Amino acid sequence: MWAITGIIVVTAAIAMFEVPSLWKKKWIKELGVFSILLLFGTGLSIAISLRVNIPNPLEWITFVYKPLSEALFGLLNSWGGE
Amino acid sequence: MFKHIKISYHQFMVLVFFFTIGGAIIFIPSLTDSAKQDTWIGYIIGSGIGLLFVLLYNKLGSYFPNMTIIEYSEKILGKWLGKTVSFLYFTYFFHCTAYFLRQLGDFINIYILTQTPIVAIYIIFFLIIIMGVRIGLEPFARASEIFYPLILLLLFIFIIFISPQIQFTNIQPILENINKLPVTIYYSLDSPYLQLVTFLMLFPFVIQFKKTKKSFILGTLIGSIFLSLIILLSTLVLGVYHSSNLHYATYILAQKINIGNIIQRIEVIIALIWLVALYFKTTIFFYAANLSLAQILNLKDYRPLTFPLGILSIIYAIVSVTNIASFKVYEANITTLHHLTFGLFFPLILLIISKLKKTNKDLSKIKH
């Protein structure tokens, strides 16, 4: 509970720091991107503090490169005489 | 966008130098795992190939001296394909930011602040990175210039003080494991030469383009000389077994320094070199991530993105690495391929297509 309160306070502080200057300059697109990313970050932080399982991006990268990696290491090791 | 920012070619060289030694310098002796005492030969060959990558980046950058890789990939590949490649580059820079943040957090958690939760270390360190990115490239590059002599001095002190402990039997017999050299060369490519593709984001900000190319090569060369020396020294002093099995071998190597029982335990100089260099490296990656996202979405400034992307980087660093063993497995099997995709495959394709387009243009000029 305290973690969630802390996350929301930090988010509010960042928003208070950033939003007024953007609003004054009428940078609506920047404000939109900023808000989406900030909300995404806050949501994920709360999910972590509630110990929700978040999908691991490194596993996706591993999934993409795994066949290539196995082939390559087979090649390198066969050259090395193993 | 942001065309008023200018840094000098010397500052660019210093940034390249920090980028090259940052991250790698403390882990680099662990490459001795496969080729044992001949690793330093393999690493020098790998560095030679790494300098060829720098030539590739120079060539690609010289076609579009006023644009970042995000802008010209859109120009070369067309709008949608270009945007896709740009977005992949953004994910790459973002991934690397979190990756080096993780390395820093692990080191501080193991050696310095052992009781502190790792998230606290991330947050403190990331606040400085965000500060560096928000004040902009110019002050940041000047700061790197201030640290440059200090870091060089510390590196020289380290190399001179450790040299009395050298035992030449440790690298004999030379060229015994020559059949393992391809593996060493393969690993040496991503630590750190393929990551230098990030500097294609900084090319348009450097004045005097011709000298920039030279300083790019020079910075990489100085960094690679130090990295090769550290592999050699680690093999000579610690021996192959300890070099390949210790996680932070260079740090342990500095603990061995003992000059007449007076100058001892100065391993913190390695920690200092590594932290400073890693700070600059992570900040360059984070700067590239912010700038690339701002350019993909055609934003007027990248600064509003720093705090949200900072939060997301910390989350990425926490979520992606569950423990250090899984991180090591990932590092051993996947990292180099991931870096090869962005450091070699995409730049090469961009270069070939832009060359073809250029020749087409020249031909059409002759016809008319």
User: What percentage of amino acids of chain B are in beta strands?
Assistant: under 5%
What's the β-strand tally of chain B?
A: 2
> In percent, how much strand structure appears in the residues of chain A?
under 5%
* Strand and helix order of chain A: HHH
Number of domains as seen in the coordinates of chain B: 1
Largest sheet of chain B: 2 strands, antiparallel
Strand order of the largest sheet of chain B: 1-2
CATH architecture designation of chain B: Up-down Bundle
Structure write-up:
The complex is a heterodimer of chains A (82) and B (368). With 82 residues, chain A is an all-alpha fold. Chain A has one domain (2-79). Helix content of chain A is 83%, strand content 0%. Chain A has helices spanning 2-24, 28-49, 57-79. In chain A, helix 1 (2-24) packs antiparallel against helix 2 (28-49). The longest helix of chain A is centred in the first third of the chain and has 23 residues, at 2-24. The mean pLDDT of chain A is 88. By secondary structure, chain B is mainly alpha-helical. Chain B has a single domain, classed as Amino acid/polyamine transporter I. In chain B, strands 1-2 form a two-stranded antiparallel sheet. In chain B, helix 8 packs antiparallel against helix 12 (268-296). Chain A: Keywords: Membrane, Transmembrane, Transmembrane helix. Chain A: The chain crosses the membrane at residues 31-50. Chain B: The chain crosses the membrane at residues 12-28, 40-60, 80-101, 107-134, 146-166, 192-209, 216-241, 268-293, 305-325, 337-356.
Write out key terms for the chains shown.
heterodimer, A: mainly alpha, B: 368 residues, mainly alpha, Amino acid/polyamine transporter I, two-stranded antiparallel sheet, 2 strands
Would you summarize the structure shown here?
By secondary structure, chain A is mostly helical.
